[in-house]
Amino acid sequence: KPMQNGFVESFNGRMRDEFLNETLFRNLAHARDLIEAWVTDYNTARPHSALGYQTPAGFALHLTTAIARPAARDESSARRAIAQPAPTGVNDHRAPVVAG
Description:
This protein has 100 residues and is mostly helical. It is 43% helix and 0% strand.
C-alpha cells in the first residue's frame, strides 16, 4: 500500500526528488557515502516545516536546554503538604456512613 506511513513516504519522496534523481553514482560505495551525507544533512542541518522551520539540531538543542534547566530551589526544610489546605471558614464535618 503506498500510504501506510506518511512520514516515511514524505521522506522517500524528498530523497528521490531532491537527491536520487539529481545524482550520478560511480559505484555502490560512492552511492552509500553520498546517501549517508544527504541523510545526515537532512536530519541535522536542513530546516523542517514541522519544526517551525528550525533545523532538527537547533530544535533538539532548544528542547535539551529547556529540559536541563534546574528546578526552582526550595529554601525551606519543612515538608510540604500533599493536599491543599481547606479554604478559611470551611467546616465540613460529616458522619461516616456505616454499612450494615
